[in-house]
Amino acid sequence: MDQRLESLQHRLGHRFAQPSLLTRALTHRSFGADHNERLEFLGDAVLNLAVSSLLFDRFAGSDEGDLTRVRAHLVREDSLHRAGLQLGLPEVLRLSESEMRASGAQRPSTLADAVEAIIGATFLDGGFEAAHGVVQRLFGELITGTEVGNWSKDPKTELQEWLQGRRLPVPAYRIKSTRGQAHAQTFEVECAVAALGLIETGEGRSRRNAEQEAARRMLDTLKASDQPGGPLRS
Question: Which of 80, 92, 193, 201 has its Cα between 20 and 30 A from that of 220?
Answer without folding.
Answer: 80
